[in-house]
Fold this protein.
Amino acid sequence: MKIVERILAFVGLLSLCGLFIYALQDAPTDENFEKKLFNDYNVYALQIPQNLDFAGEPVPIEDPDIYERMDRELLVNTYWQSNGLLMFKRSEKYFPIIEPILAKYGVPDDFKYLAVIESGLTNAVSPAGARGVWQIMSSTGKENGLEINDNVDERYNLEKATEVACKYFLKCKEDLGSWTLAAAAYNAGKYGISSRLEDQGVKSYYDLLLGEETGRYVFRILAVKEILSHPVKYGFNFREKDLYKRIPTYKVPVDSAVTDFTAFAEHFKINYKILKIHNPWLREAHLNNASRKLYEIQIPEPGYYQ
């Protein structure tokens, strides 16, 4: 009899524990957000959307080759979860800077996804020497008015670099005839795309036989666009407070040399590291400025750093 009572008591305890766990799972609290981390990993074949487009230009997903290439990039970017979450976090911080500049130049908003696949929205350096979020080569930057030397490299100035990218997109669209080809030209060069179109006798990116990198390029853009636009659909779970935020800044005009940026930063009650985080285009601990050029240095609003 005692054995039966013990069994019943044990079953009752298990039932109470089950109800407690169930209640916790349903509670919409921050503490229970982590419930998804336990036994919630599954891998699924993805359903490819039928109405994909880049900058309003449709993707011929009914073509078996296009379908498979799109499927590959969606799978790779969906199941590279750590990179995916970083895309969401960083885009919240940097898209608000990029989007109005694209709009100002009349470049479709979809081009912001190029910055994601080019650099992961970081100030990356490529083996070929391209730098910054938009991965601009030195020659291209100088041709478009950026100052690039050991002291100052404006490829790291996101606002100015985005303007250079916009000018390139517009020129490629004018010469190649479509936004999709303009996007591909950002990877392969305008001449590279135009010569392949001529050699192969076609007019569309989707009809071109290209090398591995450029052949995947637009599909990677499309995959990032699709995933960032529909996070829940692709299994990404986060709260608004999990995303990175842009720290408000104000601009300080400087038209003379700065001999010591450590002292300069202290004047604004920040340290050298914080100054360089907000002004990565300043490449040294001083500013030469023999020509007395007017620069604008970003200083974070008070209260964001202790």
In short: The chain has three domains: 2-37, 53-242, 249-300.
